[in-house]
Amino acid sequence: MKTDVLMGCGASLLLLALSTNAVAEPCDNVLAALQQERHLSQVKQTEGKQTTEYRDGPNIVLSLSCAVGAPNIAVTWDGPAPDQAFYDLVGRTGSLVSKRAAADIVKASKQCRQEALKDESELATIEQKGLAIECQAFARDGGGTTITVFAE
User: Fold this and answer.
1) Sign of dihedral through CA atoms 22, 54, 148, 32?
2) Counts for the chain of helices (H) and strands (E), in that order
3) Extents of the domains making up the chain
4) Whole-number Å distance between alpha carbons of 123 and 99
5) Stronger pLDDT, 12 or 105, i.e. the higher one
6) Do residues 49 and 23 touch, judged by C-beta distance below 8 A?
7) Quick check: 136 and 113 in contact, CB under 8 A?
8) Nearest to 39 by CA among 22, 56, 54
9) Could you name the domain of life of the organism this protein comes from (predicted)?
10) Do 50 and 72 touch, CB atoms closer than 8 A?
11) Total-model pTM
12) What is the DSSP string of 111-149?
């Protein structure tokens, strides 16, 4: 009986290690690509690389989440209206977690932001084949926008 329990525990640990590696691999690839972004500076990373945060100038924060399943990227703009560099960053980095082209992600991100600004909840979602984007946008308190790109 002890042997069965030990084998069961060993198999569980092996499956956990394999699933952790399966999650870590796509995130490692995304992290490596983000290190190549010339304007991004890493500001913090949680233990196990589950969340990594970067800054790009005074207005942009990018966060990579690898906590559950496929990675996702959230890009935040602090201010009234994001500039084109913000959307370009969303497109480039979003294409690291989505199968869609950067131009498609930029277009959907702008649409999502406009919908969020019109919605009382300040939230909107755009779902297309191979792409899921959630965003929050508001004009109050100086304004802000967060666009999160998920692997679909």
Assistant:
1) negative
2) 3, 7
3) 2-150
4) 23
5) 105
6) no
7) no
8) 56
9) Bacteria
10) no
11) 0.82
12) HHHHHHHHSTTSEEEEEETTEEEEEEEE-GGG-EEEEEE
How many Å apart are CA 87 and CA 99, to the nearest integer? Answer: 17
Q: At what angle do helices 84-97 and 102-118 cross, to 10 degrees?
A: 120
Distance CA 31, CA 64 (A): 8
Cα-flanking dihedrals φ and ψ of residue 124, to 5°? Answer: -155, 160
Q: Is 79 exposed, middle or buried (0-12, 13-18, 19+ CB in 10 A)?
A: middle
The mean pLDDT value for 27-32 works out to 93
Greatest Cα pair distance in the chain: 65
Q: Is pLDDT at 1 greater than 60 in this prediction?
A: no
- Beta-carbon contacts of residue 121 (< 8 Å; ≥ 6 apart): none
Which residue bears the tokens 């979602």? 125
The 3-state DSSP class for residue 11 equals helix
| pLDDT tops 70 at residue 14 | no
CA distances from 143 to 24, 43, 51 (A): 35, 23, 25
Q: Nearest-CA neighbor of 76 among 136, 152, 140?
A: 136
